[in-house]
Amino acid sequence: MTRTVRIDRERLWGTLMELKEIGAYDDEATGLRGVRRLALTNADAEARRRCVEWMTEAGLEVRVDRIGNVYATRPGRDRSLPCVLMGSHIDTVATGGAFDGTLGVLGGIEVMRTLNDAGIETLRDIEVGFFTEEEGVRFGTDMLGSAVTAGRIPLDHAHKLTDSDGKTVEGELVRIGFDGDAHELRPIPYAYLECHIEQGPILADAGVDVGIVEGVQSISWQRITVAGEAAHAGTTPIGSRHDAGLVAAAVVVELRRMCDSGDFGQLRATVGNFDIGEGQTNVIPHQATITVDLRNPDDELMTAAEQHLGEYVETLARAQGVQTTWERMAKTAVVPFDAGIQNVLASTADNLHLPYVRAMSGAGHDAQEIAAPCPTAMIFVAGESGGISHTPREYSTPDACGNGTDVLANAVLRLADRT
Length: 419
Ligand code: HGY
Ligand code: MN
Ligand code: MN
What we know:
The strands form four sheets. Strands 3, 4, 5, 6, 7, 8, 16, 17 and 18 form a nine-stranded mixed sheet that branches. Strands 9, 11, 12, 14 and 15 form a five-stranded antiparallel sheet that branches. The chain is α+β, with helices and mostly antiparallel strands. The model has no long low-confidence stretch (mean pLDDT 98). α1 runs antiparallel to α3 and α1 (9-19) crosses α12 (398-416). It contains twelve helices and 18 strands. The structure holds (2S)-amino(hydroxy)ethanoic acid (HGY) and manganese (II) ion (2 copies). Residues 134-136, 142, 363-364 line the site of (2S)-amino(hydroxy)ethanoic acid (HGY).
């Protein structure tokens, strides 16, 4: 009978609060301390080094692969068996909080400490890792490190991706000293578990701390550049303008209409980046670039939404006499998580007398990539204020973090003792 363990909640919270200071900034919009730790920046490098220190202090064997993913191994009795892997990411968006990704990494390290304290030896190796550039906000595609590990993105392509200053992933890995030599197509784990804040309202509305995640909705990222013609704001008649800003703005409005219409199911659309070039008050903008982030729990309706958007833009561009170019940044289908692993999580939560709900993930996660090579599922942890995230307002209580990590610890323990 596998033992039940309880993680040290204060120790976990201490590491969460320490890591959030790496890349901390004063956020004007909220008046709070946020976290800005974009992938492979100096802040990310410092956080990576701190996590490696914690891993080493816990007696783990640490390795870095060629895309900068970091794994730390706690040896089991039979090292020939595939390991049980925990993980997530420690890079953040530019207006990030203290929990997105870090809870799954620091929670995994806390699981290792807890097993050490309890003197527990498992049959299988247990690993905890963090993946490179999960957010995608610096190099333009999300879940980069885990997608390379899962074989969806070739290493060479990933290495060549550049940020807005033209710096490459490969160059930045070398610069921060995380250009590892372990092969990115790592030995396939027996199972992968990721503990992550929900980043939405489902758990809070249900009044529970814990969620068992059934899968991740589809994601589509595209960049649309509109090329019109600069002209005088005062003298140019309306009918003879080629206004790039007008077309870009019309796309934003149309996307919202598509979501509200219900014609594309539970479509969610976001234009997070809207660049209007020089931005001169008295000049009709000749260029506009927008990013379009679409999410849908239904692959067919996602395809229908992309098709409609393409037709809409083409018709509008022709009418306005502008040219458009499209760049595909990211595209992932709906990913269902392994039912067996979900059930291990559910029965573990039951054994711990922790109520939970099952839910689809609105956000993308490394788990959706690792689900390709191995049985995978996630534990969600409830957030305050409707679970708001990707903002310094992101917050989960010490107890919610502790409950989620207790489920992680005991589920990993059960899986690591399976023959
Ligand atoms: O975009 C996402 O859903 C995740 O936060 N990278
Ligand atoms: Mn995340
Ligand atoms: Mn995120």
